[in-house]
Automatic annotation (TrEMBL), chain A:
Name of the featured protein: Peptide ABC transporter substrate-binding protein
Subcellular location: Periplasm
Main location: periplasm
GO MF term set: peptide transmembrane transporter activity
Residues covered by the Solute-binding protein family domain: 78-416
From TrEMBL, chain B:
Membrane disposition: Multi-pass membrane protein
Protein family: Belongs to the binding-protein-dependent transport system permease family.
Ranges for domain ABC transmembrane type-1: 98-307
Protein name: ABC transporter permease
Organism encoding this protein: Neoroseomonas soli
Transmembrane segments: 9-30, 104-125, 137-160, 180-203, 238-265, 285-310
GO cellular component term, pick one: plasma membrane
Stored CDD domains: TM_PBP2
Length: 509, 317
């Protein structure tokens, strides 16, 4: 048997040796100058321009499409397809368009803007901004480069809406079923569920941009694999860096980490029934959670406590005086519960989801802290689809939510605190606080900056007392990239999911 | 024989219909509205009117039995329908992804046989010896480690630390054969860890059993060369249970490679199924499950036919 074993060993050794160069040839596929490989967190279910199909889709949309306005790297509003805008009468806005072209070579005209708004507002539309665009009374197009949008009531935030990645301007001559935009990259090919290939659009309106020739966006749904792909050199840039990997990436000489506190976690209540229809009980919850522990346990220390409404500190509307509005104070929680007639505590359900670790971990920590003040919360952790349905139907007492605001403007959080809007899992169920609705409407209709600030200050004061939600934590939203990647920026605050805008300035050596 | 085959075919088609109906019912009974979900991505509140519009467009507002009839009629025409998410033809997507899963499972099966069979024989021939004890211990360990742990460790060590291979992904064979095979190797080997251990164990015990049979003793008494006895009389006879076990495992792997596909970003059928369930994409889920179960039924049908050919008593039983 001896010679036979040796022969086998030799053959095995030879086979293994033959495999080595084969394996080696595979490494480090990224970092081709001018071509960037981007690790997406999921494959976009759709890149229909006006629908909200998630942040991965939004990032791809920011490569392909552009709106009338957008954001500069510092988060300030800037002209995009429009070079300027001003108020037109009591309820209108006038936009002057640049001399720019769509990716089909046609000029961007006021007729395209009018057509886009009509498509979004149409009866059978599933656009995210459908309700807002249905508030447009008429769109005037005095010439090709001028468009006047007349609203039914004054809307100070219309230029902000126009910067949304859900509101890009599309060529009215797009072939049926396709959407031709004016963004810096064109979609060349896609393999459903796997990857998208994008190429620079040479006619992009900013001279000299985009810097990259090509982007290959590959979906890595597993966050650990996404990090491994970056570290092994398969990709140049990744989004949604998992919190547990941030320290290791920051310490890696070959990589860069760019994080901002943009998204946030919060609690919503079922305000349609006891006990959370009582503001004192909601405040008792808000004061019962020690946020620092939550940041440590659920986000590996990558985040910060959120004890007021989720308006970014970088926003001109940030109210520092309320920064401890819902501070950790278990004694106060107990007093508030007693005042509300629950001196012996309460029992309730706490809805979250087991599908996303950050939601589950947040719920578990919150459960412990609530228990300490006498609120016995029973966890309900279904998958995300079920959690959304239960939330929309109000079949819960307390629920954990996590998201980012629409913009750094305080109107961007209306979705989460305005109980007059239709029932939704993102806001408290059956909890209509008239004063907040009124102040949000007043802020939307007010054009004077100082007066707006005052209105939102009043609104936050009411919110701290009424607790339409309970803020928990800001969470770090991170992008990581190889050192060779420059020009890509994580946008500030709530605009973190607009970072895809900076693909136009990104370069790779 | 023809009557027997026709009977079995009818039973098989009945089974496929039962599976299709069950899957239809189950996926519609679990909570979660696809229209609501599709418009709720990114934690944003969908406009209820938009949700209603979408439900109407997707036909989700129709009575369940109407949806059932529409679906079954489509199936009879060989039409799996369109994805609720982006109206992509499901048949095309399955046709694209099924071969990838089959390739992964097939590669794992072949490697498992290449590794497990010789090691099983070697261990059996030295039963009770050091090699047998070491190999058996390794097989026990391999069987006890969950596949996602093996996969994650492989990614961590081979891709992230040693940087020998890509962390995962997929490139079509036609575009880059070398890279395609390299990307196939890690997920396939991850499956091999468990499957190869099974093959090893079955082969080892099968060889031990065959070694005790009379025909082997007779060959030894005739003075046949030991190598020839092993090759001709032992291994060939011992392979039968191994092939049966591998075939069973490969069948279950068709829908069970979810974790491996997820860990290595291999865009096969299992990962597709998970994402479809998450999105409550009813037609996709039904199409994928139907294809997987039909493959099972087809395999069973072929095995039944084979039995009938081998043993005529089955036809009349």
């Amino acid at each position: 048997m001896g010679p036979s074993a040796t022969r086998r060993a030799v053959l095995a050794g030879a086979a293994a040796s033959a495999m080595l160069p084969f394996l080696r040839a595979d490494r480090a596929r990224a970092a081709t100058p001018g071509e960037l490989t981007f690790g997406l967190s999921s494959f976009p279910p759709s890149i229909q321009p006006w629908a909200n199909t998630g942040t991965a889709a939004a990032t791809i949309k920011l490569m392909i499409y552009r709106g009338l306005t957008s954001y500069a790297e510092d988060g300030s509003l800037r002209g995009e397809l429009a070079e300027s805008w001003q108020r037109a009468g009591a309820t209108g806005w006038e936009f002057k368009l640049r001399d720019v072209r769509f990716q089909n070579g046609e000029k961007v005209t006021s007729a395209d803007v009018k057509w886009t708004i009509e498509q979004i507002a149409a009866e059978r539309s599933t656009a995210y901004f459908r309700a807002e665009m249905q508030k447009v009374e008429r769109v005037e197009t005095p010439d090709d480069r001028t468009v006047r949008i007349i609203m039914r009531e004054p809307v100070a935030t219309l230029p902000v809406w126009m910067a949304s990645y859900h509101l890009p301007i599309i060529s009215r001559n797009s072939p049926r079923g396709t959407f031709v935009g004016a963004g810096p990259f064109t979609l060349k090919a896609q393999e459903r569920g796997v990857s998208l290939e994008l190429e620079a659009f040479p006619g992009f309106h900013r001279q000299g941009f985009p810097k990259l020739r090509r982007i290959r966006a590959v979906a890595y749904q597993d966050e650990n694999l996404r990090v491994a792909a970056l570290r092994s050199g398969d990709v140049d840039l990744i989004e949604y860096v998992p919190w547990q990997s941030m320290d290791a990436i920051a310490a890696d000489q070959n990589l860069k980490l760019d994080t901002v506190d943009g998204a946030f976690m919060f609690l919503v209540f079922n305000g349609g029934r006891p006990p959370f229809n009582d503001a004192r009980v909601r405040r008792a919850v808000a004061h019962a959670v020690k946020r620092e522990e939550l940041v440590r346990a659920a986000f590996f220390g990558r985040g910060s406590p959120l004890m007021q409404l989720p308006v970014a500190e970088s926003s001109p509307y940030y109210n520092a005086e309320f920064k401890d509005g819902w501070r950790y104070d278990p004694d106060l929680s107990k007093r508030l519960l007693a005042e509300a007639g629950h001196a012996n505590g309460i029992s309730c359900s706490l809805l979250s989801t087991a599908q996303y670790g950050m939601h589950k971990d947040t719920a578990e920590v919150v459960q412990q802290h609530l228990a300490a003040v006498g609120i016995r919360a029973e966890l309900n952790l279904p998958d995300w689809a079920t959690r959304v349905q239960i939330g929309n139907r109000g079949q819960y007492d307390l629920a954990v939510m996590g998201t980012a605001a629409d913009s750094n403007d305080p109107d961007g959080i209306a979705n989460f605190i305005d109980g007059s809007l239709a029932p939704s899992y993102v806001r408290s169920h059956g909890l209509k606080i008239d004063r907040i609705t009124e102040l949000l409407a007043a802020g939307r209709a007010e054009f004077d900056e100082e007066k707006r600030r005052d209105i939102y200050r009043q609104m936050e004061r009411v919110a701290i007392e009424e607790a339409p939600i309970a803020g928990l934590t800001w969470r770090s939203q991170g992008y990581a990239m190889r050192r060779q990647v420059t020009g890509f920026r994580n946008m500030p605050g709530a605009l973190t999911f607009y970072s895809g805008l900076t693909f136009e300035t990104a370069e790779i050596a | 024989m023809l009557a027997f085959a026709a009977r079995r075919l009818l039973v098989s088609l009945g089974l496929v219909w039962v599976v299709a109906s069950l899957v239809f019912l189950v996926i519609h009974l679990i909570p979660g509205d696809p229209a609501e979900l599709l418009l709720s991505q990114g934690g944003i509140a969908p406009d209820p009117a938009a949700v209603e519009e979408l439900r109407e467009r997707l036909g989700l507002n129709l009575p369940l039995w109407t949806q059932y009839v529409t679906y079954m009629t489509g199936l009879l025409r060989g039409d799996f329908g369109l994805s609720l998410q982006d109206e992509h033809p499901i048949g095309e997507e399955i046709a694209l992804r099924l071969p990838r899963t089959l390739e992964l499972v097939g590669a794992a099966g072949v490697i498992s046989l290449i590794v497990g069979v010789p090691l099983g024989v070697a261990a059996a021939l030295r039963a009770g010896g050091t090699l047998d004890r070491v190999l058996s211990a390794c097989a026990g360990l391999a069987l006890s480690i969950p596949v996602f742990v093996v996969g994650t460790l492989a990614v961590l060590v081979l891709a992230q630390e040693l940087r020998l291979v890509s962390a995962g992904g997929y490139v079509p064979f036609a575009r880059d054969p070398g890279r395609h095979l390299a990307l196939l190797l890690m997920p396939a080997c991850t499956i091999v860890v468990g499957l190869g251990a099974v093959v090893f164990r079955v082969m080892r015990s099968s060889v031990l059993e065959v070694l005790e049979r009379d025909h082997v003793r007779a060959a030894q008494a005739r003075g046949a060369a030991p190598g020839a006895i092993i090759r001709r009389h032992v291994v060939r006879n011992a392979l039968t249970p191994v092939v049966t076990v591998v075939a069973l495992h490969l069948g279950s792997l068709l829908g069970g490679t979810v974790l491996v596909e997820f860990v290595f970003n291999w865009p096969g059928l299992s990962g597709y199924l998970v994402r479809s369930v998450e999105a409550r994409d009813y037609p996709e889920v039904m199409g994928i499950v139907l294809v997987i179960s039909s493959l099972f039924v087809l395999l069973n049908f072929l095995v039944d036919l084979l039995y009938a050919v081998i043993d005529p008593r089955v036809r009349h039983g």
